[in-house]
Amino acid sequence: MKNRPFGSTGVNLSIVGLGALPLAVDGRPSESDAVRVIHAALGAGMTWIDVADAYCAGEHDIGYGERLVARAVREWSGARDDVRISTKGGWMRPGGGWKINGRPEHLRAACEASLAALGVSSIFLYQLHRTDPSVPLAESLGALVDLKRQGKIAHIGLSNVDAADLRRARSVAEIASVQNLFNCFDRECLSDGILEACERYGIALVAHSPVGGHKGFGRVADDATLRAVAARHGLTPQQVAIAWLLGKSPAILTMPGARRVASVLSSAAAADVVLAAEDRAELDAAFPLPPTRSVKIAAMRREVRHLARRVRARIRYVARSRVRSQ
Predict the structure, then answer these.
(1) What is the pLDDT of residues 95-151, one digit of tens each?
(2) Are 268 and 46 in contact (CB under 8 A)?
(3) Which fold has domain 3-325?
(4) In this prediction, what percent of the chain has a pLDDT beyond 70?
(5) What is the pLDDT of residue 325?
(6) Which of 42, 123, 275, 277 has the lowest tally of Cβ within 10 angstroms?
């Protein structure tokens, strides 16, 4: 299994890690089967596992994914000290749904709960799961900066953000990683400036759902170009999709999820696939970037939305602060 530097952390991690989401949400396997999947991943050379407090069946189950990963690593017979676990905070699961909460007090409490669930005194990477439109980003990240200062987290990451979010975040905190949706069909990372920014600032770009995720998995399996390249080399379309992403930049690492041992072993094997130039050219033609003009227009629209959102968030946040102080 190949390794790459994980941003500016000074740690080399496998270029393919394990996303624990499918092991913890609705439709998940039994706990014992999930542990076997994690052990298979570790045995195949995956040195990091990504989870979140919200990877669970609902509010009654918060932290299930973290407890599961902690158990699996604890029972692993290999070199446990080489395993890195990243987790995230910023979602709540009321009634089994998903609700963003980026308030500092929630993030501080969520981190404390994650420390307990993982059974550690410090978390390798703690990520803001999603920016909260009702809370200024600086306020959310300020809580994580405080937690890092206290030694409760070693590195801070972002998830589901764009280049504008990253620019603002870097003015508040040192950012080690960005985890975004990125695969053959969801290619915004190649055109919206986030990959370029990560490369420039030495930040790891973690591609989640690199084989389409739960909803897009079938698209990868059925795509004619991926199937043709795979057939020529005795690979699966999913392995080709992962290899294509990894070849785009040394800043990229991939984090596929899996519910079965066979799936995790297939993803791990993709780390050693090197596509020929003609294969890459064929794939690039099949999955092109959007026109430059469209990218610029989309970026301008995002900036306008961000500005409006920041103004609204500041007004609401100040109003809440005044109410609490009365």
Answers:
(1) 999 999 999 999 999 999 999 999 999 999 999 999 999 999 999 999 999 999 999
(2) yes
(3) TIM Barrel (3.20.20)
(4) 90
(5) 67
(6) 277
Per-chain mean pLDDT for the chain = 93
Kindly state the helix (H) or strand (E) to which residue 128 belongs, with its residue range: strand 123-128
DSSP 233-244: HT--HHHHHHHH
Please tell me whether the overall predicted TM-score, pTM, comes out greater than 0.85 for this model.
Answer: yes
Which tokens in the block code for residue 184?
């053959």
pLDDT at 315: 74
- Evaluate whether 30 touches 268 at the Cβ level (below 8 Å): no
* Sequence ranges of the domains in the chain: 3-325
- What 265-268 contacts at long range (C-beta under 8 Å, 24+ apart), as own/partner pairs, is 265/40, 265/44, 266/236, 266/238, 266/239, 267/16, 267/18, 267/211, 267/238, 267/239, 267/242, 268/1, 268/16, 268/41, 268/44, 268/45, 268/46
From residue 30, alpha-carbon distances to 43, 114, 128, 153, 196 in Å are: 20, 21, 28, 30, 40
- What are the structure tokens assigned to 156, written together? 């801070």
DSSP state of 103: -
**What is the Cα 273 distance to its own chain's centre?**
22
Contacts of 131 (CB under 8 A, 6+ apart): 100, 102, 137, 140, 158, 160, 161, 165
Gap between the Cα atoms of 127 and 134, Å rounded: 18
Q: What is the per-residue pLDDT across 269-285, written as a single tens digit (0 to 9) for each?
A: 999 999 999 999 999 99
